[in-house]
Design a protein that fits this description.
mainly beta; three-stranded antiparallel sheet; about 10% helix; about 100 residues
């Protein structure tokens, strides 16, 4: 799938291909329509956030909106590294 991927902290993320996510127990697969870019996401990309991901590369972003398999529109939070919200699909830890 296509995604915005961070390879190194302090560098600009790249729009490239990444492995498709497979949801774990308790996760929901969301087809992403839009992702939020918040100050914490920018700090993570720069390597300045106190809770940096431990696994590189990773897909940027945590929050977004999208659709479930049944077509329902949802707001979601991606929770499991290396997957984030800035991709075609995201495994969500919660949806609303």
């Amino acid at each position: 799938m296509k995604a915005v991927v961070q390879y190194q902290f302090g560098e600009t993320p790249c729009f490239t291909t990444f492995d498709d996510p497979h949801p774990s127990d308790g996760e929901t697969l969301v087809q992403v329509r839009a992702a939020v870019i918040c100050p914490a996401d920018l700090a993570i990309a720069k390597g300045l956030h106190p809770r940096l991901p431990t696994q590189l590369p990773f897909i940027c972003g945590r929050d977004g909106v999208g659709r479930l398999a049944d077509g329902q529109r949802v707001y979601f939070r991606a929770g499991r590294a290396p997957y984030g919200a800035m991709a075609e699909y995201a495994p969500a830890e919660w949806v609303a």
